Amino acid sequence: MLAAAAAALAGTGVFMLLARRIPPHQVLLIPLSGLVYGGLLMAVATFIAIEGGLLQYLGVWMSGEFSGVLAGRYELLWLAGGLALLSYFAADQFTIAGLGRDVSLNLGLRYGQVLGFGIVTVSLVSSLVIVTVGMLPFIGLVVPNLVSRLMGDNLRESLPVVAAAGAGLLLICDILGRVLRYPYEIPAGTVFGIFGAAVFLYLLLGRRANG
Questions:
Q1: Which of 23, 31, 75, 107 is paired with 183 by a 20 to 30 Å CA distance?
Q2: Which of 99, 119, 135 represents a domain boundary (last residue)?
Q3: Are the beta carbons of 96 and 168 closer than 8 angstroms?
Q4: Interval 105-120: pLDDT, tens
Q5: What one-character-per-residue DSSP string does 5-72 give?
Q6: Do 74 and 150 sit in the same domain of this protein?
Q7: pTM for the complete prediction?
Q8: Does one domain contain both 123 and 165?
């Protein structure tokens, strides 16, 4: 888990360096570059899994589920919880940083330090959680956008709601995955992926319909 956290931090740093080379007016190239970069990293992970005889386990890990969360494999989540708490205390600075570099500097914010702290925190928390339970698609994309539509961009107020809503929706998806085809189990990540994809399309189409 510590190795995965270090790899996630390094991978995020490389992507940030790549994103800086993208022209500011070509914003759509950032997610496209992320898809290509993610595909490259997935190819490397698949090669390592093949060489180590872990390809089947990699497939299970790509569909987030909780059957592998056992004693000795989840304790580092306390570290993720502590980092998330630190992020909450820095929420106001993240809100200002979201206004852009020039505005942040004019308001006296140390933009580079805040951005670096945010990157480190997000990388470590994400890697520790994903290594423990596997991939959970759309949860980091759908839930914050839904909450921001209702509460705005004040992170100090919205972060607890984002955390509670994400945990609650994931719990519901896990319960559905256990009862829909009982005694078989559908991974929670698969159930949430279907729900998240539908909500994400609604967010895109609804925003386009409203101009």
A1: 75
A2: 135
A3: no
A4: 777 878 778 888 888 8
A5: HHHHHHHHHHHHHHHHTS-TT-TTHHHHHHHHHHHHHHHHHHHHHHHHT-HHHHHHHTS--STT--TT
A6: no
A7: 0.71
A8: no
Q: In this model, does residue 197 exceed pLDDT 60?
A: yes
Q: Largest Cα–Cα distance of the chain, in whole Å?
A: 59
What pLDDT is stored for residue 207 in this prediction? 57
Structure-token pair, residue 196: 């998240």
pLDDT in tens, 120-150: 888 888 888 887 877 777 787 788 888 888 8
Nearest to 40 by CA among 15, 73, 70: 15
> How many domains, in total, are found in the chain?
2
- Does 101 reside within a domain? yes
Contact 92, 104 (CB under 8 A): no
SS3 at position 1? coil
44: exposed, middle or buried (C-beta count within 10 Å: 0-12, 13-18, 19+)?
A: exposed
Burial class (CB in 10 A: 0-12, 13-18, 19+), 80: buried
Give me the domain span that covers residue 185: 136-206
Q: What angle do CA 116, 121, 122 make, to 5 degrees?
A: 100
Same domain, 53 and 152: no
Q: Are 138 and 192 in contact (CB under 8 A)?
A: yes
Q: Is residue 47 part of a domain?
A: yes
